[in-house]
Structure formats: structure tokens, C-alpha cells
Amino acid sequence: MKETCKATLRRLGQPDFATRYFVGQGLDVGATTDPLSQFSELFPLIKGVRLWDGIDGDPQYLTGLADNSFDFVHVAFALQRMPDPLEALRHWFRVLRPGGHLIVTVPDEDMYEQGFWPSRYNLENRWTFTVFKTKSWSPVSVNLVDAVRVLGAQADIRRLEVMASGYRHTLPRFDQTLTPVAECAIELVVRKRPQAETVAGGRLNPDGGLSPKDVLALTGLRVDALKV
């Protein structure tokens, strides 16, 4: 319930969202009632956010959207409703420009579904998610670490975290997303590597040397020029 809204307060304390992830032209998939655009003033590097929902076309395939179209793609609590979550990830990543970020939140299966399937809290849910398990109680469990592999060599995981700070583990079973504090979520941020970086097998700093003045400013040490 209002998962983007709840995530915003936390994200304001995590500088990468304002300076790296929510930058440029974005796409917000399946968020009519809780759009990211309502918080654009809090992330001033956002230039615009296009909302994509059912009336725009299938949110799994994003038919009609060209490859490499957006600087970031944001999807909150929608992956679990897709017929094929791996296919959805492929297409959400497809429309992302090199250097851009895919930001996806999904319900954590233990905190949200709490050991029951089909879902007791949302009958539209088709899948459950965990960061990684060798065994799950859920017959439709998806390991996000494994899921990201379908994105290929361009996928660069920048963030993968269980959002459990507001979750009450001692309470009886109920949908804690109905409270104003519990996210019950996993947050995944994947950067799309540019082609040159993909070929090189990773991000490499440019060649060059640092002057003694540069080293002094960066480290406080007085040394000869730092050679690479």
C-alpha cells in the first residue's frame, strides 16, 4: 500500500537515488495510484517521468517503446503480477539507456506472503520473491540473484537489499504493508553497462596520473605524482 510513498522518505536519506538513479527521463511502470512523479521535486535531477499502465499496453512487454529510450525505469510492486517475471525484466531493461538504472521493488515472500500460497493478501500476485534461497516454502518462488542473470553481461547490480527496518517480526500474521512504516520489500537496482564497459568485463577508470596537488586534495598526503 503506497509503497513508492513509503520508500521515498528512506530514499531521501540515500544520496544515490537523487544523484545517480533518478536522473533524466524516466519510465514508471504500473503506478497509477502511487506514481513516482508526485515526488519529482524531491529528486531535482528528474527531467520527466512517463507513466505506463494497462491503458498504455502490456506492462510486461512495453510494446511500442523503443530500445534504449529512458534514463531510468522504476517499477514498484508490479513484478509479482506479471505472467513471466523474467520476460518482464528483459523488456524493462531493454528500454533502458546504457548507463541508466532499473529500480524494482517486490514484496519479500517471508515478510509479505508469510508462508502461505496462494496469497492471502493479494490474489493478483502470481509470484513470490526472495534475494536467494536454496529452498523455499513457496511453489512459485523467484530468486532475484538468479533472475538478474537473464539480463546478460550488461547487468550491473548496484543495490539488492531486503527492506525490513519497519517490519514487526513479533506480530501475528497480517499484511504489514497496510501500516505506514513497513515496506516488506526487496529493492533491486541494476545499472545498464555501456557497450565498451561490457566488452571490457567491468567499469574501468580512465588512464592518467594525478599531480602532487591532486593527491594532496584527495588524501591530505604530500607525495610525488601518483602514477598508474
TrEMBL record:
Key word Membrane present: no
Keywords in alphabetical order: Methyltransferase, Transferase
Keyword GTP-binding appears in the UniProt entry: no
GO MF assignments: S-adenosylmethionine-dependent methyltransferase activity
Protein name: SAM-dependent methyltransferase
Coiled coil: none
Listed Pfam families: Methyltransf_11 (PF08241)
Domain Methyltransferase type stretches: 55-104
Organism domain of life: Bacteria
GO BP: methylation
